[in-house]
Amino acid sequence: MTRLRACLGAAVAVTLAAAGTTALVATDAQGAPSAATALSNRWYAAAPYLMPTDNNPPDAGTIMDATGLKAFQLAFVLAPNGGGCTPTWGGTSPVSSDTAVQSVINTIRAKGGDVSVSIGGYGGTKLGQSCADPASTAAAYQQVITKYGLHAIDFDLEEPEYENTAAVHNEIGAAKILQQNNPGLYVSVTTAGTADGTGWFGKQMLLEAKSQGFTPNNFSIMPFDGGFNGAASQTGALTNFNSILQSTFGWDQATAYAHEGFSGMNGRSDTGEYFTQADFQTVLNYATSHNMDRFTFWSLNRDRPCSPVDNGGTTSGTCSSVAQNAWDFAKYSVQFAGVTPPTSTPTPTPTPTPGSCKSAWSATAVYTQGNEVSYGGHNWVAKWWTQNEVPGASQWGPWQDEGSC
Hints:
With 405 residues, this protein is α/β, with parallel strands linked by helices. The chain has helices spanning 41-46, 60-67, 100-110, 127-130, 134-148, 165-181, 200-212, 231-249, 253-258, 277-289, 330-337, and strands at residues 26-27, 33-34, 49-50, 71-78, 88-89, 93-94, 114-120, 152-156, 186-192, 218-222, 260-265, 267-268, 274-275, 294-298, 366-367, 372-375, 378-382, 386-387, 399-404.
């Protein structure tokens, strides 16, 4: 994904439950079970990446308060640097003795949020490379799921692992086993993006998934670090990737989009590409209008302004290198999840003067972002593609109330 994603130093966690256990149950520092309430899949699909113990980690609670964000993608679980088939944070800190990451998770959950854990990333030794087969690889990941009571997990398959056929076989096989043994587990598979969608190794990974009969919630590509230039090049790659999903799995276009995800990089990429807030908005519009399953980015550690703005022409792990306010990019994830972020300085809302009513909402019509309708004496505006979803039926639904009419 990026060299900045390869390093993670952490001290970590609690006694492990037996490998292969299937319950989605966490244990606190004393070993007592502590239930974690699952969020909707839309939140796990919108969770931005956060390195919880490296790259000057921001306070998750602060981000939640400022943006309304509820879900975080914690990175990365790897094999031990010295070898072996047990999970660690960043190759150095065993999950079995973790307290640092558990503390971050506890903070997030105490505020009504939740986490997914990402395994892999750019560089380092992955468990799929170190474990003997899919079953032992799955057993290692099951320890992570059980310890933290996870409802979501991300397989970030990229260099050098995705060039290793045996390792990819182990990872995809493990993902399938975890999906079967943990009902309701949200599983994403993330890999490199190219202008054509994904490269040869990404296509081989998809064929491996097909051969094993494995379908995750989504296959996500990372359209950066590959000669990309703004949002148009990224949406072009997403369109091409959709065609690859169709041809590989025999899906129609809509089904392929429902299993497709975007994982971007905010600000300056490793190769000097720049992705601004406007680029994120364009890709977000594409993702929602095509009913894509995932919209995320690397990373929250970087979702802060640099000083100076261009950061000396280098890419930083702790700021974006573009002009921004703190957490600007996190707000796009919140939009994807269907929640309007709070303003930084709330002001009382005056009682609006009723305006004229828009055309009446129709259960059979298709609406896209920005379309306006009237229903129940109020005007409503669509936040994303929708059909047969009643305005006002859910506070997290596709319709924003514009007031009485």
